[in-house]
Amino acid sequence: MSFSARPRSMFVQNSWYVFGWSHEVAEPKGLLGRVIIGQPIVVWRDGEGVLHAMEDRCPHRHAPMSRGKVHGDTIRCMYHGMTFSTRGECVDMPLVQPAPDCRLRTYPVTERDDWIWVWTGEPGGEAAIEVPRAIGINAPGRPMMASQIEYDAHYQLLHDNLCDLSHVDFVHRESLKRATGADWAETAPRITHRDRGLRFERWFEEAELPGKPELKVDTWIEIDFTFPGIFVMQGERHAAGTAAACNRQRPLGIEPLMRNFEQQAVTPVGANRTAYFYATGLSGNTSETDAHVTRRMAVVNAAFEEDRQMIEAQQQIWNLTSADHTKHFLPQDKGPFLMRKLVDKLLKAERG
């Protein structure tokens, strides 16, 4: 697949995208600017704490509104003072009466599972597509830690990475592989289709228990990967033999030795720039669990830096490679192939 198309043509417009974590714009009058699929967007809270999203580009001289100030239910550009309502209408401009007849594009915005989501598509279309579900990082009894990183790479290379975790055995040999105690490249997940996404399920039988390699466990992994790049994973460690007892299906009604949770989102910034939001956590509400989550987050941070280095290097080679250059299809490519097929379907539907 070639990534040489114009930036806007490679993005699905009609989608809810993760703008950031709710805690990044937590206080009334807070504001934050980011770029999503090539569109500069500012998210802000008015004086009552209500969330709004609009074009991060003042129509006067295109200064970023995210460098402005919130006053009650208006936002003012702090370059020359042009002020806008929550509907995007200009309501005040020094020396100009009445206010100029101009407006900023506004975007539907909402919060769910501790993420801020922005709809970038056709006005009114947001009602037809549900905001993807995740986990949420602030639930009692499930401590989680969150962070984010950006990649100089096309968003579908990150999709590929998340839909084929066999790379854990190689890219993350000293980080995630050791932390999970599993051989990710030795078995294939069961993949099923879901609405605008895929589900991956698998058992790792007789996996090592990290820190106690002499002990063996059966590990169940369930991943939902939903467009536009929402990765939600739940893992369970069970006593050895549980996988066989369940006929290698989902372990319903069996209490695990430990549960872990991952919540991640891929948000395209531009043609070859992608934001990645992630969180990791465990079940439990003790100081020991909190300490374990802190250690786990250190491993996750190291692993995603490993991913960043590999994927950015991969992007550089893709930039030098023609679209018709042969790529060999392997069994590990099933997940990435199905996800790319879904993205192509969504893009074609928008183009007509």
Automatic annotation (TrEMBL):
This is Rieske 2Fe-2S domain-containing protein. It comes from the Bacteria. Transmembrane segments: none annotated. The keyword Iron applies. GO terms for molecular function: 2 iron, 2 sulfur cluster binding; metal ion binding; oxidoreductase activity. Keywords: 2Fe-2S, Iron, Iron-sulfur, Metal-binding, Oxidoreductase. The keyword Metal-binding applies. Residues 16-118 form the Rieske domain. It comes from Croceibacterium salegens. SUPFAM superfamilies: Bet v1-like, ISP domain.
